[in-house]
Amino acid sequence: MGEKDSGAGHLHRLVLFSDAVFAIAITLLAIEIHPPEHWRGAADLFAQMGHKLTAYAVSFAVIGVCWFSHRRVFARLVRANGGLDIFNFVVLGLIALLPLSTEMLWEKPDGEAVLVYVGHVALIGLAMGLVWAYAAFVGKLTEPMPVGEAIFVLLRVALLPGLMCGLTIFSLVKPWGWVLLAALVLVMNLIGRRLSAAPKAA
Amino acid sequence: MGEKDSGAGHLHRLVLFSDAVFAIAITLLAIEIHPPEHWRGAADLFAQMGHKLTAYAVSFAVIGVCWFSHRRVFARLVRANGGLDIFNFVVLGLIALLPLSTEMLWEKPDGEAVLVYVGHVALIGLAMGLVWAYAAFVGKLTEPMPVGEAIFVLLRVALLPGLMCGLTIFSLVKPWGWVLLAALVLVMNLIGRRLSAAPKAA
Amino acid sequence: MGEKDSGAGHLHRLVLFSDAVFAIAITLLAIEIHPPEHWRGAADLFAQMGHKLTAYAVSFAVIGVCWFSHRRVFARLVRANGGLDIFNFVVLGLIALLPLSTEMLWEKPDGEAVLVYVGHVALIGLAMGLVWAYAAFVGKLTEPMPVGEAIFVLLRVALLPGLMCGLTIFSLVKPWGWVLLAALVLVMNLIGRRLSAAPKAA
Amino acid sequence: MGEKDSGAGHLHRLVLFSDAVFAIAITLLAIEIHPPEHWRGAADLFAQMGHKLTAYAVSFAVIGVCWFSHRRVFARLVRANGGLDIFNFVVLGLIALLPLSTEMLWEKPDGEAVLVYVGHVALIGLAMGLVWAYAAFVGKLTEPMPVGEAIFVLLRVALLPGLMCGLTIFSLVKPWGWVLLAALVLVMNLIGRRLSAAPKAA
What we know:
The structure is a homotetramer of 202-residue chains. With 202 residues, chain A is an all-alpha fold. Chain A has one domain. Helices cover 82% and strands 0% of the residues of chain A. The first copy, chain A, is globular and about 60 Å long. The first copy, chain A, starts with a helix and ends with a helix. The N terminus of chain A is likely disordered. At the A-B interface, α1 and α2 of A face α1, α3, α4 and α5 of B.
């Protein structure tokens, strides 16, 4: 019991630490954006800064989605251990690099940069999937849950960031990408609800 | 009940995360201010840095007012959900851009920059109003409260930042603006007290 | 009672927010320090960076002393209110400017810069004194305590940062300043112990 | 008892403050990395940024190990005092300088820079050892524990960061260094388990 309590304190500190890294990364996204030297009127200002603000908004949304995923994963854990620390550090290390990829995106907004950027985000998702896989299947750090649900969480956590980011950027070019994006979120939500409803009925 | 508890843990983590973003944004305000290369005596130093320090003080006060509003809104919530996350992220995204607008303000301290700046702050207020409107009327995330009070909170949260910021900057030019500002705060406080006193008497 | 509880939650959030600002300011102290372009061996490296590292160490100690004071003040409070928010924001606003003063100190390490720097630190102390004076004498936010102790805390909180900072810098030039510094800390500690011992005996 | 409680609140605030400094330092590691001006394809991008990303990964791992050590030390404490504040501030001051050493490492990746860098990390370990030595032997801030275990913790905390960092960098040049590193972690873990198992059996 003392072991479990200390694992819970460990979990609490790990969550606070991760939150701080997320918060700093999200706030640093804006730090390399500077106002243009000359501008006349708000319209001109936004015309000159549009691509930077778009990249900022996309990355802000990306970190938001990752934070959301991270919160949902950790809400299911009951304790932490050293292995979780390590996998979580990999996630945080990739999150802290996102301001760099964002800067790249607005300095060279072509297909190659977008590819590297989406690849970076997809990697964050995979790393988060690793955290969950370790916690659920190796470290046994979660409450007892059906294997099917654990696998669904794994897929959602691992694939959603890359898919959502890719679709969002795709939608900025082809507006009907938003329909795909909405459908993706909807389907994920429906499956998630059905899976979490089932054990309650049992 | 389990659902509500998890909503409360969610709320706690959301508040801590928001606090971290506020704290980082407020501290980053100062990061682009550098001392002048040559100066003789404190008077000369302040003469050269005056406009930057003024912009810093205004933005610090603005983030202070927003944090104050945010704290008051979230003190009335009893749980959080995914929708609240999203609206709160919009607020944080605007807060994190404030150092950028502040930099713009001291580099080009004319009417246009002031307009963009006050517009930015007003937008933060409106986004915070959205958070409250969602929490109180859609997500039912608050304790039970009279509709009249909920609407008053909405107006105060949504309009106060823009009004206070506009009046503060106006007061730097026309000193009698401070009287308007004091009157605004006083009236808001009086209405707030009357509204929160009423249900207790009932 | 509900009022008091909400005041305690408010206090908790205010402390966390302040801690975040302190932590960010203290970490940003180092951000403008860059390694020299050319250096041969560790001795040369330290010779070239010595004045920056000294300024860093002094400012780190200054923020440390302020955090220490802040923690001691807030450990005596039992609730918070809007007035405390405002005075505390003044303290945080001055803390967040310390990286700027530090940069000034290493770019122009002469008497004038030292004077401005020590003045800045003394101002932080006075602002912290204002926080305590408001909390203890106006807002009645503390546990009941003898007036003599409250006044001693006020003097210690308001004067210590400026005195310690001035003496530390003085000691870098005249080594016997360290004796004065040690005596100051010792005397303050003795008075503090006597004052806090007295009511326990009563 | 009131004394102990206040020491526990103090400890909690100290841990949160330290976590914030760790989180900021770890996130700032990436802030001086900028994308190259010209690049074609992901392979060229990584070729140009490889040395910076390697230095980033090493420093991220170093701060990770330090955070891990810090968490383990503080999980054994039951209260804090002013002395702990001071020693902990020395650790944090060295942690906050790590982005500077990392920058040095990628700007001048030769033997001298590596030596200064590993020396810096070893110093962090020694400072953390000082924190533990003070807490366990002078301030009596821990739960009661056998002297042998306290000394083992001291050695592990004080020497591990420097050893692991040195071996990691060594392994980037000579791949068989990884074997030494794995052996070091394994042996430390085995001794730690035996020591913490013993008192439970008693």
